[in-house]
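Tutorial handout. Part one gives the primary structure; part two gives the three-dimensional structure as tokens.
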Amino acid sequence: MPKSLPYRETLSGSALRSATGEGMQADSSALTSVTIGPRAHKVGPDTLVVIFLRGGADGLNIVVPYGDDDYYRLRPTLAISKAKSSQGSAKGCVLPLDDFFGLHPALSPLWPAWREGQLAFVHAIGSGDHTRSHFQAMAAMERGLAEDAGGAASGWLARHLLTTEAKEVAPLRAVAVSDTLPESLRGAPGATVLQSLSDFSLSTAYSLPTGSHNRVFHKELQAQRLTALQDTLHRMYDIAGAQSSEARTLMQGGTASLKAMKAIHALDPEHYRPEHGAVYPKDDMGHGLQQVACLIKGRIGLEVACLDMTGWDTHVEQGGAVGWQASRLSALAKALAAFLCDLGPLTNEVTVVVMTEFGRRAYENAAGGTDHGRAGVMMVMGGGIRGGKVYAKWPGLQSEGLEGPGDLRVTTDYRDVLADILLHRLRNPHIDGVFPNFKPHLLGLSVPKTV
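Part two.
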């Protein structure tokens, strides 16, 4: 096995909640965080879904370099066994992606997407951060920088949205399905944090009287009270808008929030039913991706969605084909497979990126886990992806080729992948505005989108 190979071509919180029908109380700051105007139904840029695996996911056991004998030397107990056939085996062997790389068996739900060319992996990828610190490595990636030192304070997704901002943008242009705004969206226009679409609503605090049997009547009464409250809010914002610049800001933000809530109400998220036989797992990732699917199908102009998945800091008892990491991979794969199935033909309008702040050490530790490393794996999915390939300029796992205390070297900058997607799938030509002082080397993993 040579030391270096060329690129391989086989390759919740509620947004606004009114406490009573007589007095209003906002329990979050989303009044000024939502902008107005639905996206037209014509073909436009993809919706970008970014999933961040927080904790440093072990790329060497996600996309396994089973063709590199040093992998098995460095991981005598954690290594995933070589497959015994082209489809792997039921005993937990790798699923061969080509003659060198294989997929962790827990990711088998994604095999159909790989086979259909809608899934690609980029290996030996990372940032320029050498600290191996979760905080600093995540900060660098979410700000779109080589390392967490100087540079822009805003997030890379925020800068993307700023450089593509239209005169009229959607009521929910960018959404984080989380309890906090990710750094990648810091400074973004129209970024909204929510945990559930059903929480993003006005409440009249009207409850059904005890012993009441006429539920239909009371449901209609509650709807009337909600309409009256919305009308009152609109009038209040209109009056405020004529008073001062500060009041006009409140008016614009408040009106935008009402329009966003009206758009979500029309989607009826509480009664959303996945299509094409899709079944989402009943966990946080499954719930989050189902919310995103609802927004995408609702055609209300969603451009960016961010989700987090924790539990990847596997210093102890990581496991190989089974164990802690395998369980996290299984949960991720099942949720993603359900998402693609649910979207059906709309997959052609969606790009999913799965990333992590760094990979793990090439050799296993004494506690049956792996420590913080450097290079990892990125996953890209969607109908506009040149999938069925592992893109990797493989540096090898020989001792003299490892970096620092024993890490896989970074040979591809993570921004190369993001720039490729922004340029070709999201139609953003302002790459220098998103990633300042960086000249990307595009991998050609996404198909240029045309009108």
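Part three, for discussion. The chain has a mean pLDDT of 83. Residues 30-434 form one domain.
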